[in-house]
Structures are given as C-alpha cells and as structure tokens.
Amino acid sequence: MKVQLTSPLDMHLHLRQDDMLKKVAPFSAKYFSGALIMPNTIPPITTKELLLEYKKAILDATKDFTFTPYMSLFFQNYDKKFLQEIKNEIVSIKLYPAGITTNSQNGVSKIDIDEIGDTLQAMSELEIVLNIHGESNGFVMDREKEFLPIYEVLAQNFPKLKIVMEHITTKESATLLEKYDNLYATITLHHLFITLDDVAGGLLRPHLFCKPIAKRPEDKEALLHLALNAHPKVMFGSDSAPHPKSKKEAPGCAAGVFSAPVILPLLAQLFEKHNKLENLQAFISDNAQKIYNITPPKKVIALEKKAMQIKNEYEGIVPFMAGETIEWSVQ
Ligand code: DOR
Ligand code: ZN
Fold this sequence. Notes:
This protein has one domain: TIM Barrel, CATH 3.20.20. Helix content is about 35%, strand content about 15%. It is built from 12 helices and 13 strands. An 8-stranded parallel sheet has the order 2-3-4-5-6-7-8-9. The longest helix is centred in the middle third of the chain and has 15 residues.
C-alpha cells in the first residue's frame, strides 16, 4: 500500500537557533515543503532585523532542500506602520500568555481588548493571522478549557481576524471551533497518539511531556475526529519542539516533543488504520494553503506500508516513539 502527499506543510514548528537549528531543520525541510516557524527564540522575534536574520539562518540550514519557512512574529503591541512594513515578510503573529511555556517570559500578561486591541485591529486590517497558545495559569488539566472565553472575546470583537487555536488538546476546543467562522486550529502528531496515561500513568515518560499536556481519551477522540475527517478549519502543526536529552531526562524536564523526523509515516499509519488515508492530503497541506492563503513549492513525498524502526536518538535529541517499530515509511 502506498500514498503520495503533495507539498506537506507543518503549520507549527520550533526550529530553535544555532547548532540546534542546524541539527533539526533538515528533518523538516526534507519531508515538508514549508512550515510556520515559531518565534519563541532567545531573544524572541520582535523586530524586522531579528526576523530577517532568523529567516536567513533557517534558509542556510535548509539549503539542500526545497523548503519555505513561513515566518511569524512574537506578539507584542506593534503599531500599524511597523506591521505594514513587515507584512510581506510574515504570515502571522504568535501570542503567548506570559510565562506559559518555553521562552514565553516576554509574552502578554493581560490578554484583553484594552491592552492589545489596537494591534489586533491592525492585524485584522492587514490580514495577518493571529496564532495563540491558549492556556490559562490554572490547574494544568484545565488550562486550555479556562482559556476558551478569551478566544470567544477575540473572535467576536475581531470577526475579520483569522485566529488559530494552536495545538488544541480538548473536546471543548473542538466544539468551540464550530462556533465562530474566524476560529481555526492546529493539531499535533503526539496529541493524536497519546493521553495523559502515556505520559504519567505508568513509568514517567519525559519525552512525552509537553504543553499543553496530553489530556483524556475522549479529548483525543475529538481531535482524531477533526483530523481524520480533515475538517476544513483544522491543519497539521507538529509543535515539534526539540530539547537536548539532558534537558528532558532531568529533574526539571523541559516541555516539548521532538516529532519532526517521524511525522509523515506515523500520520499515514494513523489515517490508514482508520480507513481515512484519502483525507491526509487536506490535513497535511490543502487546508493550511486555504487558511493562510499560501502556495508552497511543489514537493511530492511517497510513503509506503513498510515497517521501519525509529532511531533512539538524533545527535542527542530523542524523537517521538524512539526505538519503536512503525508500519509505514518514506519511500
Ligand atoms: O511543549 C511545548 N514546547 N509547548 C510549547 O508551547 C513550546 C514548546 C517549546 O518551545 O519547547
Ligand atoms: Zn509550540
């Protein structure tokens, strides 16, 4: 059995900087035709200079491949003039609540219209997409649910602004998606495979620890329903977030799952298992092209149902499902 995917897109990717960037970027650039690059670098991407410098570093690290980095700015209040000047270099701006995850200290501490409404209005007028890491500071299992009222306020007040609920993990988010035309969502690979039980139900598995934390079986089912049917408002976004093994296998484990090298075979396996292979193209590329109004370079990836063992690590970074044998591979 085989499947061909045209121009796969990863609409939520952490590539990091320097040596880590050089190590991890080729895994995405080899299999994907483009990706939305997250701006939670050190320092975060908040100026045109930082953005262009980062884009150049990514292009250097991926020069052997056909790969388009779609760039995102780190949300702060920006004036419209600045946004006009940078509009052609970015597709979106990513909003992090302050301190909610890796390198988000400079995020927004009060997400309300009085504080950030002018920037959102300018984004809406300039057709710049807003990506949000939607979690409150509450109890870890409830953070995403507690954030949903904020999505509602933003969606209602800025009906022309496209808002992407990043890496959704709950059935409540899946439901909210239907309520507003301007809400969209990304779903990761790992949240389609694991629940909190896999992270902490037996021996603790640090390589599955991420933000938002994986939730309950019924939440995973709701995400599967959206992804397997390639709901038109849903896109694939891996949130592949590499950390060195020493930072994962540590008393204070960094949040993030490194999935970049194994995404397409695992998605093919999952969609085939549910008899939905014909929907994978829309989930992995077509929906994102429409939502973001982008045309990535053409790249065809052929996958076949042939067993493959995932490596234990890639230069000190442990991938999702390390050491496991999976059913599909890239041809
Ligand atoms: O688990 C995560 N890791 N979630 C995020 O939102 C950020 C990411 C990272 O940058 O490491
Ligand atoms: Zn992320």
